[in-house]
Design a protein that fits this description.
Helix content is 35%, strand content 27%. With 198 residues, the protein is an alpha/beta fold. The relative contact order is 0.18.
Length: 198
């Protein structure tokens, strides 16, 4: 059955491939509107919105998977940094503390006239080592090729799979891949339950 990933995230696509699931990528253009401010409900709403948007235009029998990830600290969603000042504030708040990463996932299975929709959320606790002012400034100065700051497009301002994660993530409680943007093992088992995978 055709599998469509309703996300432009290269990391999510890599994780699907690690599961042995080849998928097409069709990012949603739906406006992100939510009715809740609770992290777990926000990511579930957004994953459902994106997934249903792409499922609507996907023809034939298919499986569409949508996901949304947020970083939260003390119940507040941090989002992606709006600039270096914002990124610095995030790092100062998170250093030496435990925060949460929530990923909401929605799976739509279309077969003939039937449609199944499953939505769930996974949460991982992430603990950072304390960081000095100098370490925070060194991190903020890092750039990728093309001179884009490494923190600019990441929820909470960091990627666990990067050099930052190697240096400053003290430990996690929960699914590591959830922090990358997709609770891969949970997705695999949900696809099995839905009869998509054997």
């Amino acid at each position: 059955m055709r599998v469509v990933l309703a996300s432009g995230s290269p990391r999510r696509r890599e994780l699907m491939e690690m599961l042995g699931v080849a998928c097409e990528v069709q990012a949603s253009g739906a406006e992100e509107v939510v009715s809740s401010s609770e992290p777990e409900k926000v990511v579930e709403e957004l994953s459902r919105l994106k997934c249903l948007d792409v499922a609507e235009v996907t023809e034939g029998d298919s499986v569409v998977i949508g996901a949304d990830t947020v970083v939260a600290f003390e119940g507040e969603i941090l989002g992606k940094p709006k600039g270096s000042t914002h990124a610095r504030e995030m790092m100062k708040r998170l250093q030496g503390k435990v925060h949460q990463v929530y990923t909401g996932v929605t799976i739509v299975v279309k077969a003939g006239n039937a449609k199944q929709v499953v939505t769930f959320c996974d949460c991982t606790d992430v603990e950072f080592y304390p960081m000095t002012e100098g370490e925070i400034e060194d991190y903020l100065a890092l750039e990728r090729e093309g001179e884009t700051p490494v923190w600019s497009d990441k929820a909470g301002g960091y990627g666990i799979q990067t050099a930052f994660g190697t240096k400053f993530v003290k430990g996690i409680q929960g699914d590591y891949y959830n922090v990358m943007g997709l609770p891969a093992s949970r997705v695999y088992h949900e696809l099995k339950k839905l009869g998509v995978l054997n």
